[in-house]
Write a structure and sequence with these properties.
This protein is an alpha+beta fold. The protein has helices spanning 48-60, 101-108; strands at residues 39-45, 66-68, 92-97. It is rod-shaped.
Length: 119
């Protein structure tokens, strides 16, 4: 016997959850695994400033994002000399869920086009 609310398992003979005060069931329903989220790149840049600003804009409207390669820019101590990004890793890529791509692109078009050098 199982509690459908908290998932606790009970020995036969019990018919209510002691914590939830809910009727127990023979089996818990199968857990639904969420569909994987497809991500799309909406911005590529070597400017850490632009990454921060774009991330702030996306945060302000609740669009989740991943800044791919952001933490790898100083891998091997190469840093971003000259190119604005680590040439071995490539630029930072801001990625959002596919269903929020159009909204993110509209918001990010208002960012300054000219990138500042972070050096």
């Amino acid at each position: 016997m199982f509690c459908p609310v908290c998932g606790d398992e009970y020995q036969p003979g019990f018919n209510r959850c002691a914590d939830c005060d809910t009727a127990l069931v023979e089996q818990l329903p199968p857990e639904h695994e969420p569909e994987p989220v497809g991500l799309v790149t909406v911005l590529e840049t070597g400017s850490q400033t632009l990454v921060a600003v774009a991330g702030s804009v996306l945060d302000s409207v609740g669009i989740p994002y991943v800044a791919k390669n952001e933490r790898l820019q100083n891998l091997f101590g190469w840093g971003s000399i000259g190119t604005g990004f680590n040439v071995a890793m490539g630029p930072v890529r801001l990625q959002v869920p596919k269903d929020r791509e159009e909204e993110a692109r509209v918001l990010l078009t208002e960012l300054p086009v000219a990138e500042d050098s972070d050096s």
